[in-house]
Write a structure and sequence with these properties.
The complex is a heterodimer of chains A (about 325) and B (about 130). Chain A is of the alpha+beta class. Chain A folds into 2 domains: about 25-185, Cysteine proteinases (Cathepsin B, Chain A), CATH 3.90.70; about 225-315, Tetratricopeptide repeat domain (Serine Threonine Protein Phosphatase 5, Tetratricopeptide repeat). Chain A is built from 14 helices and 8 strands. In chain A, strands 1, 3, 4, 5, 6, 7 and 8 form a 7-stranded antiparallel β-sheet that branches. In chain A, a hairpin with a 2-residue loop joins strand 6 and strand 7. Chain A is elongated. Chain B has 2 domains: about 1-95, no CATH class; about 95-125, no CATH class. Classes of the chains: A alpha+beta (about 325), B mainly alpha (about 130). At the A-B interface, strand 2, helix 5, strand 5, strand 7 and helix 7 of A face helix 2, helix 4, helix 5, strand 1 and helix 6 of B.
């Protein structure tokens, strides 16, 4: 079997290397309606220390978003020493800590150009190497040029790195086109996607950033006025901030549109407890339990009933 | 040896304190959160409070093992959602860590150089 010579072997080797890099789908490489060229020249630059492109890129993004912090503080939030890098989840978590909405963009150049046109730089995860020798790298896109097929980045120790769009797309695709921008609470993304926005704000709410989440839900309500989850989110953050009357109004609104909403009735009952209206709270939770059946929310409803009963008893004593 | 023992002790202490913190939060909660509403809307499995608490303790422990200051770890995991914590539970070493680290020598370097010249990679600054 000497027919398989060195030339064929190397050809096969190169083919195998390249075969992982099929063409980029047009939906991803499309530029979108944004003006070109486009560059956010005022975006600050923080040169990275060894292995610390994550902190530097996030620092750039947060500062551009009006957050006052230091590179040391951001490093302490996202750098993982034994991994010599930063995890995507921690980039999102640290954005929440800075009271910003970490909005993960839909894959595609158009998402990036849209955000740039709105004045927001975009943090991206690239693999500058290949799948078998990865070099994962965070950078911040600050500019695009459709005519000359260029992308401008704050990257590593380069304040203004210019990359060919084709190369950028290839290095970016290896992270499944992961890109995130930080919205100030109350700002909407350039191309608002309901599910992505709701997920981002719910994460902010779940981690206890109620004021920021409340403002973000309000902005969401302007964009999607009839969305039940967004109204619910707004009500929940009003409750968490102690604005019980506002929360009550929103839960009642939800129930007037969908009287079978167990989540709204449960939280209305809890709000009434907070307002000291225990008998009304009991009516509400009993109404919810009557129609709950074998809903997965049953444990929560029973929990609420227990809370109401114990409040009731301590009020009698 | 002693420093490893000390490290393990700190790790346990941190996870224990996080566990008790989580339990304290859970006992006062009868409100249904928005994330839970989204999960039922999408018919996804509900993540229970206990699952979240255990995952948070696990991720915190892993972060400390990977060199995070035990004093900073509480805030770091505190800003992660239940879904993120569950996704990272027991698998922190498998997550992508963006940080430019690369270890290549000899022939691999040459191959990378060729890939760079034909525009597949973008590792080297001045090629």
């Amino acid at each position: 079997m000497k027919t398989f010579g060195t030339a064929q072997a190397s050809a096969l080797f190169v083919f195998l290397l390249l075969s992982g890099c099929s063409t980029i789908p047009p939906s991803v490489s499309a530029y979108g309606p944004a003006p070109s060229p486009l560059e956010l020249e005022d975006t600050p630059f923080y040169s990275q220390q060894l292995f610390q492109c994550g902190p530097a890129a996030l620092m750039t993004l947060l500062t551009a978003s009006g957050v006052v912090t230091t590179l040391d503080a951001v490093t302490a939030q996202v750098y993982l020493p034994a991994r010599q890098g930063s995890l995507q989840t921690e980039i999102l978590a640290a954005s929440r800590a800075a009271e910003r909405v970490p909005y993960v963009l839909a894959p595609g150049l158009a998402s990036i150009t849209g955000e740039l046109a709105a004045g927001r730089p975009v943090l991206v995860l690239q693999n500058l190497g290949v799948s078998w020798a990865p070099r994962w790298h965070y950078a911040v896109v600050v500019g695009t040029d459709l005519e000359n097929r260029k992308i401008v980045l704050r990257s590593g120790t380069d304040a203004r790195r210019i990359t060919r769009t084709s190369v950028f797309l290839r290095t970016w695709r290896r992270s499944d086109f992961w890109a995130v921008t930080t919205l100030k609470p109350g700002e909407l993304p350039a191309d608002p996607d309901r599910d992505r926005y709701v997920e981002a704000v719910a994460g902010l709410e779940q981690t206890g950033h109620f004021q920021a989440a409340r403002d973000a839900w309000r902005a969401g309500r302007l964009q999607w006025p009839n969305d039940a989850v967004i109204r619910f989110g707004l009500a929940n953050t009003e409750f968490a901030l102690g604005n019980f009357a506002a929360a009550e109004g929103l839960y009642v609104d939800m129930l007037s549109e969908d009287s079978g909403s167990l989540i709204a009735r449960n939280n209305l009952a809890m709000t009434l407890v907070a307002l000291g209206r225990n008998s009304e709270a009991r009516e509400q939770i009993n109404a919810a339990l009557n129609i709950a059946g074998d809903s997965p929310l049953l444990p929560e409803l029973l929990d609420t009933q227990k809370t109401i009963l114990s409040t009731f008893r301590s009020a009698l004593n | 040896m002693r420093s490893i023992m000390l490290r393990n002790f700190v790790v346990r202490l941190v996870s224990l304190s996080l566990l008790s913190l989580g339990l304290a939060q859970a006992s006062s909660a009868a409100m249904i959160g928005t994330q839970q509403a989204i999960q039922s809307e999408a018919r996804e499995a509900q993540i229970s409070r206990v699952e979240t608490i255990l995952a948070r303790a696990d991720v915190a422990e892993q972060l400390v093992k990977f060199g995070v200051d035990p004093l900073a770890v509480q805030e770091r995991v505190g800003n992660m959602t239940s879904a993120e914590l569950l996704a990272m539970e027991g698998s922190l070493n498998k997550q992508v860590a963006g940080g430019d680290a690369i270890a290549v020598i000899g022939v691999v370097f040459l191959v990378l150089l060729i890939l760079e010249l034909v525009g597949i990679t973008d590792i080297f600054k001045s090629v």
